[in-house]
Write a structure and sequence with these properties.
The chain has 319 residues and is an alpha+beta fold. The chain is built from nine helices and 14 strands. α2 (100-117) runs parallel beside α5 (210-218). The radius of gyration is 20 Å and the shape is globular.
Length: 319
């Protein structure tokens, strides 16, 4: 019943079980047909295991809407120990889909550092130079149409979207409390290389911001978490945010968040009533990668239960 209701197909890609959703799914778009697994022994840059920075997975540092560009806007998330302030530029606030390029940068740094620590490569710098075709394959996007130009537009918004983080209080020896504030763009500088006759972008050069580089490369305990490959197929921005929240809050266990807090942390410009309706729709479909969703009554309002779906449960879906 579960498989037929959501038109889900389970197939193996190497050692990874991938859940593919058909056109009937409201939560997922179809995977591109031109991205079948290549030579297993010659992995491309797009074959990197997807990683995210766990330090910003419980707040939306981007807009979740494709329609509302939120140009020259400010979004603030208040936290128990500080706040996160996001400011956009004239071309609009970076979207959660633009952020896929950041995920690729984090994944690249993580893989390069793993090789460096194993003595198999050099320590990576902050300059990341992928081919646009690799970006599209990594993000599970089709390789054609206006997708190449869309990458350049996404880079422009990522550079114009600044992030100011104030988190954590530290007491000095004198007993006074201080806060540490970091401010940066979601990316620093970038450069694109295009064909002069067609304007088609073929390669980019991205300077990753110091806050991200430090979290992955300079930290003794890298602040990264693996993201399921089906994350890129999620259509609703709120669905992507819910997955990231479940991944960092629940891990391989369970987490409870109030509907109200999810609404606030998502940066939604809609009403709380509308957000609650959408959350209940996700609970009803219950088809997020890796996590089951439940609603529970709380003292101050409804709660969303995010529970890790074990491999045993996943295997039973394909039997």
């Amino acid at each position: 019943m579960f498989l037929s209701e959501f038109n889900i197909k389970i197939k193996l890609k190497g050692s990874l079980m991938v859940i593919e959703k058909g056109p009937s799914s409201k939560t997922f778009r179809s995977a591109p047909s031109d991205q079948e697994q290549g030579d297993f022994f010659v992995p491309g840059l797009y074959d990197l295991a997807t990683k995210d920075n766990r330090g910003v997975m419980d707040v939306a540092v981007f807009r979740l809407s494709k329609k509302d560009k939120r140009a020259n806007d400010v979004m603030i998330h208040h936290l128990p120990d500080g706040y996160v302030r996001i400011t956009s530029g004239p071309d609009g606030m970076a979207s959660i889909w633009d952020y896929d390029i950041i995920l690729m940068g984090i994944s690249y740094l993580t893989e390069a550092m793993n090789k460096y620590r194993s003595g198999l490569g050099e320590k990576p710098g902050r300059i990341f130079s992928p081919q646009v075709s690799d970006i599209l394959k990594f993000c599970r996007q089709s390789d054609g149409g206006r997708q190449y130009e869309a990458v350049e537009t996404a880079l422009r918004r990522l550079k114009q979207t600044s992030l100011e983080i104030v988190r954590g209080e530290k007491k000095t020896r004198g007993g006074r409390t201080v806060r540490e504030t970091t401010g940066s763009g979601l990316i620093n500088d970038y450069k694109t290389i295009s064909y002069a006759d067609t304007g088609r972008v073929m390669a980019v050069e991205i300077e990753l911001p110091n806050w991200l580089y430090s979290a992955v490369v300079e930290s003794e305990d890298p602040e990264v978490l693996t993201v399921h490959p089906d994350y890129f197929l999620l259509k609703p921005g709120l669905g992507r945010f819910l997955y990231r929240l479940a991944r960092v809050a629940a891990g391989k266990n369970e987490a409870k968040w109030s509907f109200r807090l999810i609404y606030e942390r998502s940066g939604s410009q809609g009403t709380f009533k509308r957000c609650s309706y959408e959350l209940r729709a996700f609970v009803k479909r219950n088809d997020l990668p890796e996590y089951d969703l439940y609603e529970e009554s709380g003292r101050d309002g409804p709660l969303l239960i995010m529970r890790y779906r074990s491999e045993k449960q996943l295997s039973s879906l394909g039997s």
